[in-house]
Design goal:
The chain has helices at residues 15-21, 29-42, 49-52, 116-122, 135-142, 180-198, 224-233, 266-270, 285-297, and strands at 25-26, 61-74, 77-84, 96-100, 108-111, 124-130, 149-155, 170-176, 209-215, 238-244, 259-261, 277-283, 305-309. By secondary structure, it is an alpha/beta fold. Strands 1, 2, 3, 4, 5, 6 and 7 form a 7-stranded antiparallel sheet that branches. A 6-stranded parallel sheet has the order 11-10-9-8-12-13, sandwiched between helices. InterPro entries: FAD-bd_FR_type, FNR_nucleotide-bd, Oxidoreductase_NAD-binding, OxRdtase_FAD/NAD-bd, Riboflavin_synthase-like_b-brl.
Length: 311
């Protein structure tokens, strides 16, 4: 997502405070409103994250966080593991965070790609940030180190959070590029629900999950191993089709069974329409617009079509 101008003054949280005292930034409603309005006024971009999401509900908690892991997911994308200080911080699979960086007068908007279970068990969330010239992304790629301290606040209306008594649903996830991030969170959450079923724990009974994921080439298909590991763990429940639009090198033997050279087609999506199926779409605006419109034209109820645009 895009970014906006805002400062969190005095964000200084020691590692000890993060780990042992649960130090966090709890801002009042008026302070949050002031931060948002200030961000919009300072913004110079119409596609600014804070401006575009100004009307979106956010949680009140702004939690301090510490970078405890980092990796290159592709030539242009870096993932971060964040240790979350506030024990009351929570999110739903598919949501994003406002990302506050001390000394950087711009707020990032990054989708969480980990499952809620990781936060519950280890107090961590994972983000994956594409390189751009926006200050938060530049900071992540060029200045962020282990033990760097930031703050995060959850927001977003794009999520999958079924309750135990709800009807069983199939999921179709349609991702373009870095739009895989919130859908990976949903996929990982679905896998956690399947594990609960396998262990005969009481909880939501989920149907099948199909992921359609398109990128420029195989090096830009993020989290390939994680996705295929889930497909292999639940072969009767999780399936994926991967697409590359500008592949110039040979495709590995491991990936070849899953790869199609070209774009995701309307027919492939249409074949998965049923009254029990929910659709989640995340990618560039033309892609999300195309598939959401096609689903509507094929009489899928609007409440079964969920989409998020990445700019």
């Amino acid at each position: 997502m895009a970014c906006a101008a805002v400062m969190i003054p005095g964000l200084r949280c020691s590692v000890g405070a993060v780990c042992t005292q649960g130090a966090s930034l709890r801002l009042t409603f008026s302070a949050l409103r002031h931060l948002t309005l200030t961000s919009i006024m300072k913004s110079k971009r119409k596609t600014d994250h804070m401006e575009r999401t100004a009307s979106v509900i956010r949680r009140e908690i702004v939690s301090a966080a510490k970078v405890c892991g980092a990796a290159s997911e592709s030539p242009s994308v870096k993932s971060l593991l964040l240790l979350i200080a506030d024990q009351d911080f929570s999110f739903k699979a598919g949501q994003w965070v406002d990302f506050f960086i001390p000394g950087v007068s711009v707020v990032g908007g990054f989708s969480i790609c980990s499952s809620p279970r990781l936060l519950e068990q280890e107090r961590m969330i994972e983000l994956a940030v594409k390189y751009t010239n926006h200050p938060p992304a530049l900071w992540v790629h060029n200045k962020c180190t282990l033990d760097s301290e930031v703050a995060v606040r959850v927001g977003g209306e794009f999520f999958f959070d079924p309750q135990p008594a709800e009807a069983c649903r199939n999921l179709v996830l349609i991702a373009g590029g870095v739009g895989i991030n919130p859908l990976l969170s949903i996929l990982r959450h679905a896998a956690d629900l399947l594990r609960e079923q396998a262990n005969k724990e009481h909880g939501y009974e989920i149907g099948t999950i199909k992921l359609f994921y398109s990128a420029k080439n195989t090096s830009e298909l993020l989290f390939k191993k994680n996705i295929l590991d889930l497909v292999n763990e639940f072969p009767e429940k999780i399936a994926c089709s991967l697409y590359v639009t500008k592949q110039t090198t040979q495709i590995s033997a491991e990936l070849k069974p899953y790869i199609t050279e070209g774009r995701i087609t309307e027919k492939e999506i249409r074949d998965h329409i049923s009254k029990e199926t929910l659709f989640y779409i995340c990618g560039p605006p033309p892609m999300t617009d195309f598939f959401s419109k096609q689903l509507e034209n094929n009489h899928v109820p609007k409440e079964h079509i969920n989409f998020e645009k990445w700019w």
